[in-house]
Design a protein that fits this description.
By secondary structure, the chain is α+β, with helices and mostly antiparallel strands. The chain has 12 helices and 9 strands. The strands form 2 sheets. A 5-stranded antiparallel β-sheet has the order 1-8-3-6-9, with helices on one face. Strands 2-7-4-5 form a 4-stranded antiparallel β-sheet, with no helix packed on it. A hairpin with a 6-residue loop joins strand 4 and strand 5. The longest helix has 24 residues. The radius of gyration is 21 Å and the shape is globular. It starts with a helix and ends with a helix.
Length: 292
């Protein structure tokens, strides 16, 4: 594993995992509409599945133990259709047991990582270089789904969270070797700054105070930070504040004024302007939006 990879993995967190195990009997086909706010995943436990992702020219054939992740929640169909060139008679078993679901990247995951993820990631069980952790997680999920009583949703959620993170590890290991911006993001000094911002987004951060955390001059830090994240330090702080505000609007009954104050905005009007600029809606309208 690259020396920088653990730093990036530590920055990546997922939450709100939900999944369902499906015993699908031939003929079967499942369509999932696009949802840009969530990432989708598909784990084939038994049988096989053909995955058609909107926007991709070629379908993907998945076999038992294969994992597919769609980080941007693209619309897709998974079905019992065999691979091109195969007749129905060539596929002796077209039933399948599939675990499908979705998750969200947590507020502390830098957008610079999420934006670099491809539209789809596939981890094959037949890959000789696949981490043993993934195979172990698949086994644990199988055990949990096979419980005489109903599987525990909390346990499945935790297992699938780790499964998705581990499945993205290989992509990260391959990408960081040629992506200088990801290498910069994995720098321990930049990670320390990001950790500070995410732990206290409402603090009165300035370029100078963040440069001190990084141990660099103001000019060098600002250039390094923007190269690594794609944002100026102050824009990054603002984005973190707005993401925290979104969470409070979703999960609490605090007034918009209280949310503004707890997000680091003493001026409610300034908060409303910043929120609308980032989200495209006012805080009140965002709170009223239906949730999946």
């Amino acid at each position: 594993m690259s020396q920088e990879t653990p730093e990036l993995l530590d920055l990546m967190r997922v939450r709100s995992t939900a999944c369902v195990g499906e015993h699908l009997t031939f003929p079967w086909s499942v369509r999932m509409d696009q949802d840009a706010d969530t990432a989708r995943f598909l784990l084939v436990l038994e049988g096989r599945s053909r995955l058609n992702v909107e926007g991709l020219k070629k379908d993907i054939q998945l076999f038992a133990g294969d994992i597919a992740i769609l980080p941007r929640g693209d619309a897709h169909i998974y079905s019992d259709k065999p691979e091109h060139g195969l007749n129905d008679g060539d596929v002796p078993h077209r039933d399948a047991h599939i675990l499908s679901g979705h998750f969200q990247f947590s507020e502390i995951t830098p957008p610079a990582i999420i934006s670099r993820l491809p539209n789809i990631l596939v981890e094959r069980s037949s890959d000789g270089h696949r981490a043993q952790k993934l195979d172990l997680l698949v086994q644990l999920i199988n055990v949990e789904l096979g419980r005489p009583s109903n599987p525990l949703p909390g346990t499945l959620s935790r297992l699938t969270e780790v499964l998705c993170l581990q499945a993205m590890q290989k992509w990260m290991q391959q990408t960081i070797t040629h992506d200088e911006a990801l290498q910069a993001l994995a720098n321990p000094r930049i990670k320390k700054v990001i950790d500070c911002i995410h732990s206290e987004p409402a603090a009165a951060w300035s370029v100078e105070s963040l440069a001190k955390v990084c141990g660099q001059s103001r000019t060098a830090f600002a250039a390094h930070f923007k190269f690594a994240t794609g944002h100026s330090p102050i824009n990054y702080v603002r984005q973190c504040r707005i993401r925290q505000a979104c969470k409070m609007l979703r999960d609490t009954f605090l007034s918009v004024g209280e949310v503004a104050y707890n997000s680091g905005y003493a001026d409610a009007n300034a908060f409303n302007r910043a929120f609308r600029r980032e989200v495209g809606a006012s805080p009140g309208a965002y709170r009223r939006m239906p949730r999946a």
